[in-house]
Amino acid sequence: MSYWVFDHIEVDDYLAFDKPKRDVVTFATAIGWQKLPYFITAWSDEPEASIRARLIGVLAATQAGDTVLHQVPSYNGYQYDEIVLDEMTQRGLINVAIVHDLESIRLGEKVLEPELTLLRQFKAIIVHNQRMKAWLEQHQVMVPIIVLDVFDYRSNVPAPTQQFARKLHYAGSLAPEKAPFLQSWSPALNLMVYGNPNQTLRNQQAFAIHPPVHGDILPGIMQDGFGLVWDGDIQPADNEFGRYTRMNNPHKFSLYMAAGLPVIVWSEMAIATVVQRHQLGYVINSLTDLPALLNTVTAASYRKMQANAQAMSMRVRNGFYTQRALLTMMILLEERA
Length: 337
Known about the structure:
The chain is of the alpha/beta class. It folds into 2 domains: 168 residues, Rossmann fold (3-Layer(aba) Sandwich), CATH 3.40.50; 150 residues, Glycogen Phosphorylase B (Rossmann fold, 3-Layer(aba) Sandwich), CATH 3.40.50. It has 13 helices and 12 strands. The chain has a 6-stranded parallel sheet. Strands 9-8-7-10-11-12 form a 6-stranded parallel sheet. The N and C termini lie close together (10 Å).
């Protein structure tokens, strides 16, 4: 039996859109999985015959009984995904998946059934955390589910030697609907934002702005202080993107870990359990808690958290969590063969 991973080739993204999928491919191939290069097209109504014809070339090297790892969602639509799964099933391939996002949690009923129907067809799936696993099981996704715990983050650029500072870093989407808290940010809090904010945010001059940087090198330029893991508003529960973090693991958390930065996260985030378990930073209820928190942080407490973040950095940079999940999946499949 051979193991394959879909390598979705798409336009490179300066922040985070395709990096998680690229990193899965890198860490999977390091333990013997092989790439299945597949170009993502902008042809939203591509005919079924065209999709199947493209798959002939993509799957030429596979054999019946081989395992193929899908990275979902593909963002090509559920009808497209169903065609791909059907073609591969007809060839006798074993389909498994790693879930990067659950659209039915974020977008609700309009995508619930198509997404769940798709996930039920895989022989095993890897998900972010225990909460996501429990949610899927409650919605009758009864295939074996493996918990990732933390997304890995590949970077060959050395992390800076982080020092204590009452300074915050924020990377990721700066869209008003994704990070509305930036619109009311207090200049009294030292914040460096990475990306390309709109003109309204630029005019505020409430924080420093670093131009967009490729995700692979970003961990090497974040210097001192804390990484802010936050989506939504000052109170994340007031925004759909904030509420979604109760179930998903934000990729910016992995970025900050790769940089060796302690973090500050919302108390209701799923990733808060990881932060507390490994003593990687602070958990707060609202951004209004930040001033008091930063005023009480000591250099000694920071050094302890930074040492823990540095240990986590080694794991995420080397694909520990991805490879552990994939090896668990391989054992499971071979036991059931």
